[in-house]
Amino acid sequence: xxxxxxxxxxxxxxxxxxxxxxxxxxxxxxxxxxxxxxxxxxxxxxxxxxxxxxxxxxxxxxxxxxxxxxxxxxxxxxxxxxxxxxxxxxxxxxxxxxxxxxxxxxxxxxxxxxxxxxxxxxxxxxxxxxxxxxxxxxxxxxxxxxxxxxxxxxxxxxxxxxxxxxxxxxxxxxxxxxxxxxxxxxxxxxxxxxxxxxxxxxxxxxxxxxxxxxxxxxxxxxxxxxxxxxxxxxxxxxxxxxxxxxxxxxxxxxxxxxxxxxxxxxxxxxxxxxxxxxxxxxxxxxxxxxxxxxxxxxxxxxxxxxxxxxxxxxxxxxxxxxxxxxxxxxxxxxxxxxxxxxxxxxxxxxxxxxxxxxxxxxxxxxxxxxxxxxxxxxxxxxxxxxxxxxxxxxxxxxxxxxxxxxxxxxxxxxxxxxxxxxx
Length: 423
Hints:
By secondary structure, the chain is mainly β. Helix content is 14%, strand content 36%. It has 8 helices and 24 strands. Strands 13, 16, 17, 18, 19, 20, 21, 22, 23 and 24 form a 10-stranded antiparallel beta sheet that branches. Strands 1-2-3-4-5 form a 5-stranded antiparallel beta sheet, covered by helices on one side. A 5-stranded antiparallel beta sheet has the order 6-9-10-11-12, with helices on both faces. The protein starts with 7 loop residues before the first helix and ends with a helix. Residues 1-36, 162-172 and 243-253 have low confidence and may be disordered.
């Protein structure tokens, strides 16, 4: 598909063009400057209108705002369903409609599935629609970052120095999203809410992603080391597919972070299910009940103090086996991960999943509240191993799958690229 940079005149004139694109003007706000995704797929003689999906909006709502008729909307939904269900568009993702400049006829639709993929639908000569999922065509540059933590990882990353473009404006310092990427990379080794110490240090090589010459976001961390309280953690991003780490997947469908021995940095569970202020009550076989102040008994869980409404995520992949009211636990969610482990999350203000739902590691399942027998908002968190409650802070959890034997040679080539970095 031919791609080119639409000139500034067409973008600025998009609002006026909308008047003859459909039977009625599009009642949307245009995205200032070049859209993040659709812009890359515009051919010569075309222009586009683009919108970020707002909270509570459906594809039907947005299509109607662009003047798309009901039958055309159904045809688009039907043509896309084998590639992506547009009835499940996500808040904050971009949806673009591309039209023929000469006659204003709708020709394409582009939807940002996630940071790696886009859905493109095109109208055929027979007035039917066909679609495909393709990798977003980022241009990437490599950058290196390093620093010593004085107060927080976030401040250390932003203050690491060196100008970086964010959209079309330059700011001093690195993109704060690099801090999030580092925290995600080592989330199974370090609890970034409680384990970070003054004097901890980090170094990393990472991707900077561009579309049509404009900086969009950081990509993958490609190699990194993090020293936490004297313990050193190292890792690389590996994809047997080769090439840029962006969007790559290895031969068995996985791509991720591994230590220098080829062991997965990702473990079966995250270190904690939320960002919290402090642990208000630890794992104990005999504690005074904080509500009644009279009864002593076991508390085989961890209580995380956090503001009401704080999102809580599942620490691992699994199936929701219970979601709702559970006596003293108030509104709670139980997630079965496998035949060995189940996790329990209590005192929610509300849940975000239903019984029977499949959840992914890191997916929001509920929000901190103060339901049930409590003195204030917090999360009650349990890990059950073969039905027995175990201490989430001390249990040794198995790592994810190591690099496959068939991929070891490719993994060693990846390590060789960063030999100098780790020396």
